[in-house]
Amino acid sequence: MSGVAEKLRSLPASVWNYVFPNEEELTGQVDPHTGAVRLSRRLGGDNVQKGDSILEVTDLGVNFWVNGEWFAAAEHVNYELHAGEVLAIVGESGSGKTQSSMALLGLLPPNGRATGSAKLKGVELIDLDAAAMREIRGNEIAVIFQEPMTALNPVYTVGFQIAETLRAHFIMSPKEARERALELMRLVEIPEPEKSYDKYQHQLSGGQRQRIMIAQSLACDPKLLIADEPTTALDVTVQAEILKLMRSLRERVDAAIILITHDMGVVADMADRIIVMKDGKVVEHGQAADIFYNPQHPYTKALLKAVPHLGTVNLVTPPAYNYSIVERDGEPVPIAPGDPGAEPVLLMEDVAIEYPAQGRRPAFRAAEHINLRIDPGRVVGLVGESGSGKTTVGRAIVGLLPIKEGKLTVAGKDITGAKNKELLNWRKDVGIVFQDPGSSLNPRLPVGESIGEALFLHEHLRGKELSSRVEELLELVELPKSMRNRYPHEFSGGQRQRIGIARALALRPKLLVADEPTSALDVSIQARVLDLFLDLQARYNFACLFISHDLAVVETLSSQIAVMSKGRLVEVGPTPLIVSEPQHPYTQRLLAAVPVPDPAQQRERRELRDAVFASQVS
Amino acid sequence: MKNNDDPLAQYPDGIRADSMIDADMEDDGIIVADESTGRGDNAIAIKEVEGLSQGQIVWRRFLRHKGAMGGLTVILLMAAFSFSAMGIGPISGWWKYQDPSQTHPMHNDKGEPTLSLPTWLGGEGWEFGEHPFGQSQIGSDYFAQVLAGVKTSLTVMVILGLTVLIIGVLIGSLAGYYRGRIDLWLMRLSDLVIVLPTIVIGAVLGSLLSLAPIKLGWSIATTQMVRSYMPVLLAILLGLILWPSMSRLVRGDFMSLSQREFVDSARVAGASDWRIMTKHILPNAMGVIIVNLTLIMSQSVILETALSFLGFGIQAPSMSLGRLISENQGAFMTRPWLFWWPGLFIILVALSVNFIGDGLRDAFDPRGRRLPSKKEMLKATIIGNQANTTAAADEIVDLSEVNVSEVDA
User: Fold this and answer.
1) Whether residues B241 and B279 fall in one domain
2) How far, in Å, CA of B273 to CA of B178, rounded?
3) C-alpha dihedral, B217 to B222 to B228 to B231, nearest 10°
4) Which of A221, A326, A536, B32 is 20 to 30 Å apart from A127, CA to CA?
5) Of B322, B324, B319, B307, whose CA–CA distance to B134 is shortest?
6) Residue B42: inside a domain, yes or no?
7) What pLDDT does B125 receive?
8) Does B282 fall in a domain?
9) What whole-number distance in Å separates Cα of residue A239 and Cα of residue A237?
10) Residues of A in contact with B42 (CB under 8 A)
11) Are residues A545 and A346 in contact, defined by beta-carbon separation less than 8 angstroms?
12) Which residues pair with A448 in a beta bridge?
């Protein structure tokens, strides 16, 4: 028994009884790691053995009451889960994968209800009363959320938040909780746990924040871990590290894991069994290998086919040169040779871009020494992790950011230091598709007006003429003409992104900047948007800078890839070369980290990845 | 609950050589995700807003807000009642005493109200009488005075609101959109105005308005003009010192909205600053503006009353609710109705406007999806269970019994 519990023992009986009304239930509940007494009851004892049945879900359904009608968000979900097993629930946004898992914890919004049965070690979780549910949350079932930035409270230190979870479920002094929290932080491989304990979430990197979340969720030895898209918000290299950690935890912790994700690569890396959900229904359920190699349901087949697969055949015409240009010893990458006789649409010569100083915040140099050339009709992929400056480059090209140094020529016009008025005519030749389908359309304007804005301003089209052009553009992106008068909130993410493409192409630009146009979309929708994009590119033959963090997406589209890291280009070369023989260590790491949707191949890649990561650390 | 018909209901310990598939889905021929239809969460979100513009959604939410509807009804009734009774400008109203300052012989002993409520409200039968709200100490008709005061309050409220709207939105949007030096200077200006104590400045402005014609030796006609438009002038002057709160909110909203990608997109399309501000940002900032405006308006009613009570605001011959209270201070014990009526109307006006503002705030809040109450959810549960039982009576019997018993408890 720990220190605090002993001290409490010496208090008068009335106090002891007040703290522990059901003492008999508590006496056996000593935590094996710390010897602390648990406050919450444990279901079915402390220790679970690998292979024990932990969760039995039978005919689980989740319904929402909307405008006087019940809507099914999920129905007829059945599965059984054993200790040490990883079950992946795969599906697109809105398929009910998250809601059906949150129903286990009673975390549905007030207009939702769960039906059916879900038994954790024989205890029915559906319609469990609030007090009993609190004992289960964190204690028996823990959740790792998608966005560690919002799941951690910014006003407390991360260590305190782990200790808080501990003290909610154990009798522990702050000191004991701190020690146990440090132990947990060591378990999830946080560097210098003593120092990190007193840090706030904004002082940690994304990967470290996610590690803290995992440590917090492991605090009470839960029997079941629900990981809701645990790596979606992270960069690929960080994602690879977190997946590695989760794999090693699997061996050490006996909990069962439910992994909710839409990334088939992550699934291939982790899952033992897979449930595929669509529109609230389970369409397929089986062993991971079966689902990957022998999918039965057409939806699963389509889903697997839609995932861009690194190393697939690329049909794009190769550029005129056949070698990669790599940054060496801090020397910036020079401009790659272009097509003979072609006048480049985009020419960046030693460009540096700065965000100007604001108040006391000093100017921030987001990109420097950028040398890049795009010839007419070519698609160049720009890849890099978040914060590498790739979006900054894209925005500077369309004139949204001024450049600080160097020379930027776009569509035959030198826009270095050009005034807004001088650029008016030039703007016809460039277009941009933004990343976030939620914020790229004005919510107060019908989409037709958003699409037609450039036509209205440049070609001075009005009335009938304008609407017929807008309708043409809508048909171009395979949307019905009648949708011209609808508002953005009535469209799904994929449809909004199509509208964004239609708007960018309204004036037939010579250069299109696509800033991660598909990263917010589900895979099958992403596949369709990319198909549409390829089709339009072939038809109108515009040049394009395609910015993405996903190498597999870029590979299918572009003839050249430029890799960016920390505001500098580190490698530029023909797509097949970059993918098969990366030269720069950063490119190698980036490639090794991408998970592929194939369990066997992924196993090999994982070993390769660990080797690459290890060699680069040493 | 075992169900042998459903292929997914049972599987041996989760270990299965062959994958399980759902047969109906295949029949539907849904292969690739359909973006527009489908059930699940997306359908739920879209179902709520089908075929409506943003403005219509806000309007519908506003109409559903009971408090706001109540407030709106009360304000409209009050406006209709006071303006029709006392007239607008040169047009006279229906009440027999159009001049509030005219004195009359005492109708009854102390000039008590002759208004009596209908019997079903506990009165002695509906009667309006000679002086429904009673008479003041000197015998003038209190009904005319109070309604003229309500008219003034409403006028002040609207004019002040408009002044604040124009100045606040103009300054806020320029500062928020252009930032940098323009923002710096405009915000220092608003800092300067925001530290001025409203009551003191209002008092100075109010007495200036009444003193200026005498000091400057204006002609009688001009003085009369100024006097009769006193409430309007006072409202404009108060508006000139109340705009900073509005401009700060608008500035903040413009700052965050101008970071949104649709603004960048308009910029890339070649839209001018003026077009971006008016066509793209302003409509999106309307929510904040309207909500803040209603709050300033209800505040202005109280401010005008307070100023008039202190004797600085509205002067004779214009009537004001605050002036009525201040003039009749001495009669609190003997003629309490002289306080009931102005007090009642001050509360009604301020409260209704606040309720309207509250409703508007809820309506404009994008996250404010109305969630059903517990009672509605219980009803819904019963409906859901009935539907289930009729659809598949054998399957769900035991389940629905569990839920119904819980609803009863």
Assistant:
1) yes
2) 9
3) -70
4) A221
5) B324
6) no
7) 66
8) yes
9) 5
10) 93-94, 492
11) yes
12) none
B288 and B353 fall within a common domain: yes
A146 and A67 Cβ atoms separated by less than 8 Å: no
A249 CB-near residues (< 8 Å, 6+ apart): A187, A188, A214, A218
Contact A453 B271 (CB under 8 A): yes
Both B205 and B150 in a single domain?
yes
- Contact list, A290 vs chain B (CB under 8 Å): 16-19
Nearest C-alpha of chain A: how many angstroms from B256? 12
Q: How far apart are CA B168 and CA B138, in angstroms?
A: 44
Sheet of A560-565: strand order equals A325-326, A568-574, A560-565, A379-383, A543-548, A511-515, A430-433
The gap from C-alpha A447 to its chain's centroid, in whole angstroms, comes to 27
Q: Are both B222 and B296 inside the same structural domain?
A: yes
Q: Are B341 and B146 in contact (CB under 8 A)?
A: yes
What is the CATH classification number for the domain harbouring B67?
1.10.3720.10
Nearest to B377 among A65, A76, A457 (CB): A65
Q: From chain A, pick out residues whose CB is under 8 angstroms from the CB of B387.
A: 70
| DSSP conformational letter for A429 | G
The predicted pLDDT at position A22 comes to: 57
The answer to whether residue B395 sits within a structural domain is no
What single-letter amino acid sits at A441? Answer: L
Measured CA to CA, the distance from residue A90 to residue A561 in angstroms comes to: 30
Calculate how close chain A gets to B199, using CA atoms only, in Å. Answer: 34
Q: Token pair of B317, please?
A: 């011959």
Chain B contacts of A304, Cβ < 8 Å? none
Angle at A567 between CA A314 and CA A239, to 5 degrees: 60
Say what the pLDDT of residue A416 is.
Answer: 86
pLDDT digits 0-9 by tens, A40-51:
666 666 566 777
Same domain membership, residue B150 and residue B108: no
Task: Check B19 against A435: CB less than 8 A apart.
Answer: no
Q: Which of A67, A299, A435 sits opposite B47 (nearest CB)?
A: A67
Residue B108 sits in the same domain as residue B222: no
The alpha carbons of chain A give a radius of gyration, in whole angstroms, of 27
Please tell me whether residues B352 and B218 are part of one structural domain.
yes
Q: How far apart (Å, rounded) are the C-alpha atoms in residues B322 and B306?
A: 6
Q: Which of B139, B162, B190 is the last residue of a domain?
A: B139
3-state secondary structure of A591: helix
Residue numbers of the domain that contains B290: 56-96+145-364
pTM recorded for the entire structure: 0.78
The residues, any chain, with a CB within 8 Å of residue A178's CB and separated by 6 or more, are A159, A163, A197
Distance from CA of B169 to the nearest CA of A (A): 19
Q: Could you give the 3-state DSSP secondary structure of residue A267?
A: helix
Question: pLDDT digit string (tens) for B190-226?
Answer: 999 988 887 887 778 777 777 777 787 777 787 777 7
This model of the complex carries an ipTM of 0.78
Smallest CA-to-CA distance from A263 within A555, A547, A553, A530 is with: A553
Domain final residue pick, B346, B364, B382: B364
Number of domains chain B contains: 2
Residue B31 has its nearest CB partner, among A298, A398, A436, at A298
Q: Which pLDDT score, from 0 to 100, does residue A339 have?
A: 77
Coil/strand/helix, residue B320: coil
Beta bridge mates, A512: A431, A544
Helix axes B220-228, B198-215, angle to 10 degrees: 160
Residue B250 lies in a domain: yes
| Beta pairing class for A256-261 and A86-90 | parallel
Written as one string, the DSSP assignment of A541-563 is --EEEEEES-HHHHHHH-SEEEE
Encode pLDDT of B68-121 as tens digits: 899 999 999 988 888 888 777 777 777 777 777 777 777 777 767 777 666 676
pLDDT tens-place string over residues A191-236: 889 999 999 988 888 888 888 999 998 888 888 899 988 887 788 8
Tokens 């407390």 found at: A156
CA A357/CA A360 separation, integer angstroms: 7
